[in-house]
């Protein structure tokens, strides 16, 4: 027999998943790490800040895309 036996989950005993990585951190730590990444991207020249016109255009695109989905696949011809 194998000295190391692994326990397998059966349908009667569900395995509870514990959060890992970012999900296991508290909100303040997540915020600090994310802001470090944002600062680093801007310092390296890869960061992007939207102008008000770019933001307006992106919002317009999103609104048009979400409105168009409800009519796809209907037989109203």
Distance between the termini: 68 Å
Portion of residues within helices: 40-55%
Strand content: under 5%
Kindly provide the radius of gyration, computed on alpha-carbon positions and rounded to a whole number of angstroms. 24 Å
Largest sheet: none
Instruction: Pick out the low-confidence regions.
Output: none
Broad shape: flat
Number of helices: 2
How many E-type strands? 0
Structural class: mainly alpha
Structure description:
By secondary structure, the chain is an all-alpha fold. It contains two helices and no strands. The chain is flat. It starts with 26 loop residues before the first helix and ends in a 9-residue tail after the last helix.
Which features characterize this protein?
77 residues, mainly alpha
Short description:
The protein has 77 residues and is mainly alpha-helical. It is 44% helix and 0% strand.
Break the fold down into its secondary structure elements and pairings.
Elements: H1 27-43, H2 52-68
């Amino acid at each position: 027999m194998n000295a190391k036996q692994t326990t397998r989950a059966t349908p009667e005993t569900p395995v509870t998943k514990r959060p890992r990585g970012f999900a296991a951190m508290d909100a303040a730590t997540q915020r600090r790490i994310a802001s470090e990444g944002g600062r680093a991207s801007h310092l390296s020249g890869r960061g992007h800040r939207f102008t008000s016109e770019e933001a307006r255009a992106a919002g317009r695109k999103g609104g048009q895309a979400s409105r168009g989905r409800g009519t796809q696949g209907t037989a109203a011809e």
